[in-house]
Structures are given as structure tokens and as C-alpha cells.
Design a protein that fits this description.
Blueprint lengths: L1 E5 L6 E6 L6 H5 L7 E7 H17 L3 E7 L8 H13 L7 E6 L1 H13 L6 E5 L2 H7 L4 E6 L2 E8 L4 E5 L8 H18 L1 H15 L3 H21 L14 H10 L7 H18 L5 H13 L10 H9 L11 E6 L2 E5 L4 H8 L4
Parallel strand pairs: 2-9, 3-4, 3-5, 5-6, 6-9
Antiparallel strand pairs: 1-2, 7-8, 10-11
The structure holds glycine.
């Protein structure tokens, strides 16, 4: 088992990564938390495959578990659903020493973390992410939230989990499209911080897509370590943490314009990364290979490259984003594979020029 420590003084925690971890989750969890009342939150798809494996392992280790299963989907990530979960917390008589366990993808993790952060002003919670995206990104770093009709993740907090348990076997039941979308975030880590990781993906893409355990362990552990390092330096996203949003500025605009229906998050981010690389080239910050290498990987993943959206529409949406500071957009731009800068120098003129050129 691989263990990565996230050092955040009183809020420090371990990320455990291994195959076959779910069957023995209770045995590992007792090292972190004395058995207690536990609300296990999942969704109906995940429940079918892993619900009883996890509950039984927890029960064998004397955790008093109640399972709550949500309807799958981003639409569920609302205050109304949180309210149902608060009811379950009361029903199962959770107190400040109890535990909330999130078993699932990003939606389950975000809303469970939000409920854990707010019920009785915060009770312990752990993350068991089952999608690649959740394993390398959303389960680590303590961003918890629900959506509001005015915007995604607008009601939330920073609230760190007590531990994160990643079972690489869960990727075997993940739809291929979700695996590929999650891989975009792994490529992102390569671009922002780790040229060696990027090269590894270039060389080992076949093994990764075949779910070879060693290849998965390498990309997941490296991604988690990079995210942990960034969050350790800037837990509340005052500055450095923004680099994790590489590809997300335009990616987010694409998701917004298409009402979050046409593209998976990772697909929109992939397009956003390519445009960000083009912007960096236009501004003389880097050379064409930085774009070409990303393009080649993204093509090999079979991801869509064209949006069919009008550049004006994307630009308008960009300026309406919550991340606009004093009328300036904030972009993460690569200077080489493994290194990015945070820039507020990207003008509307550059954007129009870049977005008008097909990828
Ligand atoms: N997904 C970006 C962050 O956690 O900061």
C-alpha cells in the first residue's frame, strides 16, 4: 500500500492507495478512527457494486453503519439533498465524534464533505473516491460544496477529510469515457508540475488504459502527491493553488455555455488546456511543442477537439466568471511541460485571435 501524507498542521491526513482496499477498508480505518456511529453516503450505481463490501468491512470492525444512497448525477448536489442527509444524520444519532464516509465520485464526495463540514459545525469524514477524477482531484484538498442555481460549487467551504482511501480496482467498473476524462486531470498535473509524469503517460498510455496496476499506482500516487504539495502551500487558494485550474478557465466557460450537458468536465478541460497552450505560444511564453505534445495525447484519448461554439460566446462567459478579478481574467499558462505561470495579462484581443483558430 502506498501512503501519501498531506501536511496541514492540525488538519493533516493520509491518502492510502492500493488494490483490493475496499474489502479491508474497516481494518485500515480503525487505525485512523475508533469505531463509532457512521453514515455511509453513496449513490445508487456505486451502492450496487461496492455498497455491501464497504458496509460489511466497516461492520466487522465495529463501526455502526447506516448507508444512504443518492440518485446519481450532478443535479443532486443541492442544499435540498444536503437537507435529506442532515435528516439521516439526526436519525442515526450522529454526534461530533461520529463519522461520515463518502463512497463514490465527485458529486458524492463534494456533498458528503459539505454535510460533514456543517453538521454540528463539523464532524469527521473520510473519502473513498471511486472515479479517477475524484481519486486524483476532488477527494483531496478539502474543497466541499453544493451547487446553487446561480453557479456550480457556489455554496461551500474548505474542510479537510480525516483520510482518503483509493482502491485502484474501482476503475475496472468505471465507464471508459469517465476514465479518459479523469486522465485529463492527470495530464494536467504533468503539464503544471511534472515533465516526467507527462512523459510516463506518453509512454505508458496503453498500460494505463488496460488498467495495469503498477501504471495506475504511478499516475494516481504522483497526481495525489502533486496536489498534496500544492494544497500544503496554499490550502485556501490565495495564489499558488490556482495552478490546479490549468485548462479550467476556458474549460469552465465551455461547460457553462453548453449548460454542463454536452461535455464531461475532463473533456472541457482538455480543450481548455489546448487553448491555454495556444495563448502561451501567442504571448511568446513557450514554443509549439508544448501544444503539440498535449494535442497528441488528447487525440490518443479520443477526446473531442471542436466545440462548434462561437468565440464571442466563450469570451462573454469568461468575463462573467467568478474568477474575474477587477475585470481581468486569470489564466494558468505553460512555459514548458512541467511548469506554468499565473497570468492576468491575457487580453480580449488575444482570446478572440486564439479562439478563432481551430485546434
Ligand atoms: N480542483 C482544484 C482544486 O482543488 O483546487
Amino acid at each position: 500500500m502506498k501512503t501519501i501524507r498531506v501536511n496541514l498542521s492540525d488538519n493533516s491526513y493520509n491518502i492510502y492507495i492500493d488494490e483490493g482496499l475496499l474489502e479491508k477498508i474497516g481494518d485500515t480505518l480503525v487505525k485512523e478512527k475508533t469505531p463509532c456511529k457512521t453514515l455511509l453516503i453513496t449513490d445508487k450505481n456505486i451502492e450496487k457494486v461496492y455498497g455491501s463490501i464497504v458496509s460489511e468491512s466497516l461492520l466487522r470492525n465495529k463501526f455502526d453503519v447506516r448507508l444512504v444512497s443518492l440518485t446519481p448525477g450532478e443535479e443532486q448536489k443541492t442544499l435540498e439533498t444536503a437537507f435529506i442527509l442532515y435528516d439521516a444524520c439526526f436519525d442515526h444519532k450522529l454526534d461530533r465524534n461520529s463519522l461520515i464516509v463518502a463512497l463514490g465520485g465527485g458529486v458524492v464526495g463534494d456533498i458528503s464533505g459539505f454535510v460533514a463540514a456543517t453538521f454540528m459545525r463539523g464532524i469527521p469524514f473520510i473519502q473513498i473516491p471511486t472515479s479517477l477524477l475524484a481519486q486524483v482531484d476532488s477527494s483531496i484538498g478539502g474543497k466541499v460544496a453544493v451547487n446553487h442555481p446561480k453557479g456550480k460549487n457556489m455554496i461551500g467551504s474548505f474542510y479537510q477529510p480525516r483520510a482518503v482511501f483509493i482502491d485502484t480496482d474501482t476503475l475496472a467498473t468505471l465507464p471508459a469515457t469517465e476514465l479518459v476524462a479523469g486522465l485529463v486531470e492527470v495530464i494536467k498535473y504533468g503539464v503544471i508540475k511534472d515533465a516526467e509524469l507527462f512523459e510516463f503517460i506518453e509512454k505508458s498510455l496503453y498500460d494505463i488504459l488496460q488498467l495495469n496496476h503498477d501504471a495506475l499506482l504511478k499516475i494516481i500516487a504522483t497526481s495525489c502527491q502533486i496536489k498534496a504539495n500544492v494544497v500544503e502551500e496554499d490550502e485556501k487558494e490565495k495564489h499558488l493553488r490556482a495552478i490546479l485550474n490549468y485548462g479550467h478557465t476556458i474549460g469552465h466557460a465551455i461547460e457553462t455555455v453548453t449548460n454542463y450537458k454536452k461535455y464531461r468536465h475532463g473533456e472541457a478541460v482538455a480543450i481548455g488546456m489546448l487553448y491555454a497552450a495556444r495563448i502561451a505560444i501567442d504571448m511568446g511564453l513557450t514554443d509549439n511543442t508544448v501544444f503539440e505534445r498535449q494535442l497528441s495525447l488528447i487525440k490518443r484519448l479520443g477526446l473531442p477537439l471542436q466545440t462548434g461554439l462561437k468565440p464571442e460566446e466563450i469570451v462573454k462567459t469568461l468575463y462573467a466568471d467568478k474568477k474575474v478579478i477587477s475585470g481581468r481574467l486569470r489564466f494558468i499558462l505553460p512555459t514548458q511541460i512541467g511548469e506554468v505561470i499565473i497570468s492576468d495579462q491575457v487580453t480580449e484581443e488575444i482570446l478572440h485571435r486564439i479562439l478563432n483558430k481551430p485546434l
